[in-house]
Design goal:
It is built from six helices and four strands, in the order H-E-E-H-H-H-H-H-E-E. By secondary structure, it is mainly alpha-helical. A hairpin with a 2-residue loop joins strand 3 and strand 4.
Length: 286
């Protein structure tokens, strides 16, 4: 009967060679991938942070306009006239220098109420989109749509063109279209950000690398460790110790490979820093 040790020995050696070659290739590829993605990833991250900062600023303006319009409406209802110097709108924000008092009627009061309600919807949508950089990054990374964050009217087609002329009183009817136009422009920027992250994910090929780690792990267990255990070497404590030591080193090797793939996957988390030092991408964060 043929000696089965030859089979187990050959299988172990062949599998070890495959694991070694593939593992070395994988490590070099992961390091090259991280370095290759670093610059484009930083540009995408800067775009995400710019969108977040701009949206936070818009949310603050929306809250201020909503409060101003609500207070102005109460004052106009009590006084019978609207003081333009006491309110601000999206087309005339802040200290706009507008003067004049305008007689109010049911239509004007209703319009002011609608602007306040619309500003509240607009502010809430902005708050959901830009709650914090991590929320914005996670939404874009997982491919979620921004449109579902807003009231339905914010996603409707524009009813008119927002003009830049006219005084504050004449611009009251333009406020809803201004908010809708601004929200949809932010959605376009957000969708563009999603596209950039999708490109980064495709280039990183994290799922493919994770699959390779699993295949190499199977090779190591069933192609190396198990055949080595079946070899009829001289019995003794040394055989068990060597197998245990090899098993520990194999686990550490695959822990290293898995950690490198995890760090590459973390490049898609744009809220985290990802620096390039001496040709190697370095991830900072948890």
């Amino acid at each position: 009967m043929a000696d089965p040790n030859w089979f187990y020995s050959t299988l172990a050696q062949s599998s070890a060679a495959i694991v070694g070659l593939a593992g070395g290739f994988m490590v070099s590829r992961v390091l090259a991938q991280r370095n290759d993605l670093a610059l484009d990833r930083q540009a995408t991250r800067n775009r995400m942070l710019d969108l977040h900062r701009a949206t936070v600023t818009a949310q603050e303006i929306a809250a201020r306009v909503q409060q101003s319009i609500s207070s102005g409406r109460v004052a106009a209802e009590n006084a019978g006239q609207l003081d333009a110097s006491q309110i601000e709108t999206f087309t005339h924000p802040g200290n706009h220098g507008q003067q004049g008092s305008y007689a109010t009627d049911v239509h004007t009061l209703g319009l002011l109420q609608r602007i306040a309600d619309d500003a509240s919807d607009y502010e809430q949508a902005l708050g959901k989109l830009a709650r914090d950089p991590k929320t914005l990054s996670d939404m874009a990374r997982t491919g979620k749509d921004a449109e579902h964050l807003a009231a339905e009217w914010l996603n409707e087609d524009l009813e008119g063109i927002v003009g830049g002329g006219g005084n504050l009183y004449q611009s009251l009817g333009q406020q809803r279209d201004w908010m809708r136009n601004d929200w949809q422009a932010r959605c376009i920027s957000y969708n563009s950000l999603k596209g950039q992250i999708t490109t980064l994910r495709t280039r990183a090929a994290v799922a493919s690398l994770g699959g390779l780690v699993a295949v190499l792990g199977a090779f190591l267990v069933f192609g190396v460790l198990v055949p080595l255990a079946y070899l009829s070497a001289r019995a003794g404590a040394s055989r068990g110790l060597l197998l245990a030591a090899f098993g520990v080193l194999a686990v550490l090797f695959f822990a290293y490979l898995g950690n490198e793939v995890r760090r590459l996957a973390n490049a898609l988390h744009l809220e985290r820093e990802f620096l390039v030092t001496r040709g190697m991408a370095v991830h900072l964060g948890h």
